[in-house]
Design brief:
The complex is a heterodimer of chains A (248) and B (354). Chain A is α/β, with parallel strands linked by helices and 248 residues long. In chain A, helix 2 packs parallel to helix 3. The model of chain A has no long low-confidence stretch (mean pLDDT 89). Classes of the chains: A alpha/beta (248), B alpha+beta (354). At the A-B interface, helix 1 of A face helix 6 and helix 8 of B.
Chain lengths: 248, 354
């Protein structure tokens, strides 16, 4: 007997959750470990209990399903459900991400579940790339990043970001005189942001072009970027090449 | 604004015309042996220009004495009086200028202004000023017509937007698909409840279709529609959603535009009740106060989450719809306090039943 698949159901309507529970009943190997009513609850459940599979409604109070994924960094084992969200539906179709349109039949539900189950078994093939692309589009549309600070969620508009710095296993987002900590890799946040707007100027620094004031060459091998807020950031040689491409 | 001052080219034309009139007068004076042409030019051109600017004052006379506001008799009187005054003024200036010129230039032959010349000048000034009055009247009538056309086009545009808005609120896709999903869930849990919800949903859509076609409906009809809507939403949201309706019985006969209350409830659920974990109660209070009908919808809000951008668009649309229907006679106001969101509608009391 293989290990049961742990499942989290996130939907703010009780009846919608009960429907999924009912559709899951025939499956003996499925274990529903949590039901969530809000985006925040879903986020906590994903972080604390690491379910194998999440049924995630897009339209939820406090945080949308896409924002939950952005906050948790979760990129696979997700089945989206939605009643009607033109933006999300278009994006799902574009990236071939499976989703359930409410109301859905047991048959359609089984299909989605089996597809997800297969993906879980083949560890290599995951929906990671597609979901990352989807989140990048969502960020581009909303023009903000979401950051969790203990139990509060902060929204940082992209236009206010001065730079993002990589620390050990987290990043520091410097925006409008404050700095925000987020558990995410610099490469991940770089993929999420518009590449025409943000330049990786250094292994540990990601800078938006709108924050740049000037580039100074201190010596032959040392270049710094002077920001509008007066701070100076180191620019690596390859970072300088990338920066030049953007400025020409 | 004065039509001559608002357009530089028009002003240039005006000056040119009066320059020509001045030269023309000078030529007549020379031909009739009143003076040399050169002196006549010095005399007639400035006087003509002065009179030209005097005639532009006719615009203000026309603008303040509109045919819509005063009787024809008064307007006739004002027109004749103002023409007389300006003709006399022009004559005085002509005399003064002639005197001044003859002193300054030391010329041997100033114009001898005979009574005949006086009369000719006076009469032509009078006629010209009257002509100016009539011209400006035509200009103003034309401007009015253009403004009215523009207003009408705007009103038509708003009416079409309102229609679209009504159409959109009829079929909120979220509401429809989520309700169907709830019914789908209920069929296995509670078949009777599923049937009830289907009927409530059908009633709601049927009422929206028939009511939104009409220009005005009674408040009672709108409240019935809201009951169906709330019945469906209460099944979806369960214990989270409560409502309290406080309506004075006599106000139910009030005649109102369709679909003004239901969108408010929809907003109250979407942006209020739904975002609160433990839910809350929507309060609807409707009273008549003399010639006015007041409708107030209050719902609790979640203080932790910032308001969703883009909300308030529905309220802006409602405001525009009221503006098109009642001009300044109706109001849509909303405010958000710490705990609650309040929308207040004030519209003129109308009723088909006495």
């Amino acid at each position: 007997m293989t290990q049961p698949i742990s499942v989290v159901i996130a939907d703010d309507e009780e009846l919608a959750r009960r429907l999924i529970t009912e559709y899951l009943r025939p499956y003996q190997d499925i274990d529903i470990i949590a039901e969530c009513e809000t985006g925040t609850e879903a986020m906590d459940a994903i972080i604390q209990r690491c379910p194998d599979l999440i049924f995630l409604d897009i339209q939820m109070p406090e945080m949308t399903g896409l924002e939950v994924l952005e906050m948790t960094g979760r990129h696979n084992g997700v089945i989206f459900t939605t009643a009607y969200d033109q933006f999300a539906m278009k994006a799902f179709d574009l990236h071939a991400i499976d989703y359930l349109l409410k109301p859905f039949s047991q048959q359609r539900f089984d299909e989605a579940l089996n597809k997800a189950r297969k993906l879980l078994q083949q560890s290599g093939a995951s929906s990671e790339a597609a979901i990352k692309q989807l989140l990048a589009e969502n960020t581009e549309k909303n023009q903000h990043l979401m950051i969790r600070d203990r139990h509060q969620v902060h929204v940082v508009p992209i236009a206010t970001i001065d730079y993002i710095k990589a620390e050990d296993d987290y990043i520091l987002i410097h925006a409008a005189g404050k700095s925000w900590m987020k558990t995410q890799s610099l490469t991940d946040v770089e993929a999420q942001l518009n590449p025409a707007q943000f330049v990786r100027i250094h292994r540990s620094y990601l800078m938006p072009l709108h924050a740049l004031k000037a580039i100074e060459r201190l010596s032959k091998d040392s270049i710094v970027a002077l920001l509008n807020n007066g701070e100076k950031l180191p620019v690596s040689r390859s970072g300088y090449e990338r920066l030049k491409e953007h400025l020409h | 604004m004065h039509p001559l001052l608002s357009d530089f080219r028009r002003l240039l034309w005006h000056i040119t015309v009066w320059l020509v009139v001045g030269l023309f007068t000078a030529k007549i004076l020379a031909l009739t042996n009143f003076s040399h042409f050169s002196y006549a030019c010095f005399f007639a051109v400035p006087v003509s220009l002065f009179f030209g600017f005097l005639t532009s004052s006719a615009y203000y006379v026309c603008a303040s004495f509109r045919i819509q506001k005063y009787t024809f008799f008064i307007i006739k009187l004002v027109f004749i009086a103002s023409s007389l005054i300006s003709a006399i003024l022009a004559l005085c200036v002509a005399h003064g200028w002639n005197l001044f010129l003859s002193n300054v230039t030391d010329t041997a032959s100033p114009i001898n202004i005979t009574p005949q010349l006086d009369f000719a000048l006076f009469a032509s000034c009078l006629v010209l000023y009257l002509l100016a009055l009539l011209t400006y009247d035509v200009v103003i009538a034309f401007e009015d017509m253009q403004a009215a056309e523009k207003r009408e086009a705007n009103a038509r545009l708003l009416a079409r937007d309102a229609e679209l808005q009504v159409l959109r609120s009829q079929i909120d896709p979220h509401f429809l698909f989520n309700s169907l999903n709830s019914i789908s869930a209920l069929t296995a849990i509670d078949a009777n409840a599923a049937r009830e919800m289907t009927i409530a949903l059908a009633d709601f859509f049927r009422k929206t279709l028939t009511l939104s076609e009409q220009e005005k409906i009674t408040l009672d009809q709108e409240l019935c529609l809201c009951d169906d809507f709330l019945a469906v939403e209460k099944i979806r949201f369960g214990k989270k959603l409560h409502s309290k309706v406080e309506v004075d019985e006599p106000t139910k006969s009030a005649s109102i535009p369709p679909m003004i209350l239901q969108p408010l409830l929809e907003n109250a659920i979407k942006h209020g009740i739904r975002t609160i974990r433990q839910g809350g109660c929507i309060t609807i209070k409707i009273v008549r106060n003399g010639d006015w009908l007041h409708i107030r919808v209050t719902n609790p809000v979640n203080t932790d989450t910032p308001p969703v951008p883009g909300s308030g668009l529905g309220l802006q649309n409602l405001r525009a719809r009221f503006q098109a229907l009642y001009s300044d006679q109706a109001r849509v106001e909303w405010r958000c306090t710490e705990q609650e969101f309040v929308v207040e509608l004030t519209l003129p009391w109308e009723s088909n039943t006495p």
